[in-house]
Write a structure and sequence with these properties.
The protein has 13 helices and 3 strands. 25% of the residues are buried. The chain has 300 residues and is mainly α. A 3-stranded antiparallel sheet has the order 1-2-3, covered by helices on one side. Helices cover 55% and strands 5% of the residues. Helix 6 runs antiparallel to helix 7.
Length: 300
Amino acid sequence: MANTTAPEHLGHLRSEANKLIQGSLSANTNKAYTGALSNFKKFLSHYGIVQIFPVPIDHLLHFIAHLSIAGTAYRTAILYISALSYIHKIRGIQDNTQSFIVKKALQGLHRSRGVTADPRTPLTLSILQLVVSALPSVCRSPYEAVLFSTLFSCAYYGLLRVSEVLNIQKGHISLSNSKVSILIPRSKTDQFGNTTTLHISKQPNSLTCPVHWILKFLRLRPDNAPSFFFIHIDKKGVTRYQFNFLLQKAIQFHSIQGHFRPHSFRIGRATDLAKQGVPDSEIKVLGRWDSKAFQNYIRL
């Protein structure tokens, strides 16, 4: 007997498939690729070039030349070309960004730029001690001083990115008198949420010891507060801007010279570990670094 049932409409399946494909990129990558495509469109418009897909090789070469003349950093140029490559691959069309001559043009751009040193200054343990000691003088209340002392010590000893430390939940922390364990459910190098648990031992110097500061902060932290662990007295979460603002205030208080940013805690701890003789392979694991990022950020 013939099947007379009409085939189910496939629209919702296409919609779900598109959603899954879009979800394959992290929010930051999606934002970066969107910006890259916008810059490519501006280039085409400026020179009166019609947008064509697949993008012809000569258009790609002219775009790279345009970036070179504009003084664009090599890594930024790579990001732009990677975004165009992604668009071609996702559409299943010929990807001219992978052609030999385009790759050679990018190599030439890399050579012309040379190796650019990371401008951020490592925030080592000795500087962390100064930063924490300045907080009572630059924060607006004793509560804020304890809050940021806890934040900064955890960022340093945990080799944490600012996005990771600010998104720690209260339930992600378990504490004993000798160590603190912090669950990191997702990070830049763990887009699938396999989770990592950091174990930080109690440190001899209470001024920079995360265990000491977490215990102190827990005694002050408001009850029935949101799930984010690091919150102000009004129960609002700490922002990246506030993290960097207080860091700069503490740095200025002691007139410390250098280009310090939130990532400085991470590279400072890695630098200190390297100086102590900890093998590179172990630091990479502790910091959840890929090899390329590790070589770019470590300061010896």
